[in-house]
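User: I'll paste a sequence; please echo it back and then give the predicted structure.

Assistant: Echoing your sequence first, then the prediction.
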Amino acid sequence: MKMKKRNSYLPFNKSIIFVAPMKKLNFIYIIIIFLGVVGCTSASENEQSKISPENTALGSTPAIEFDTTVNNLGTIVEGEQVLTYFKYQNTGDAPLVIYSIKAGCGCTVPKWNEKPLNPGDKDGIKVIFNSSGKSGNSNIRITVNSNANNATNTLYIKAEVN
């Protein structure tokens, strides 16, 4: 009876060496990916909970009230840059946060305080209108998104550009 010669450096089936560690590595990779996803999700939820109405007492919500929703700049010369303000107040009973402000065209740049505004406090949105390349009547829409009960507000800048 003839015996098979075995390599002395591999006294056992070499597939066992590579299968078990690969299964362990795959399992470890799956756990790492899962923890990464859970960590990212909980971080974004924590950030959102700091500024959302759900973080306040039952029935407490912020409310935004503007002094005016239309600023008429009158007649201006083409090429002028005009600065105007929209004043607002938090008339609710929870902190107000403005998430975003978007102008209807690139000729208008809004700037605002991104920190929460406490109930009863007032602030303003600074808007710069660049009339270069404009002529005639301009009616620019500005959309304000916040955590208030009236979450979306629309403001307008009107001007006659000569």
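The two ends are 109 Å apart (CA to CA). Confidence is low (pLDDT under 50) at residues 40-56.
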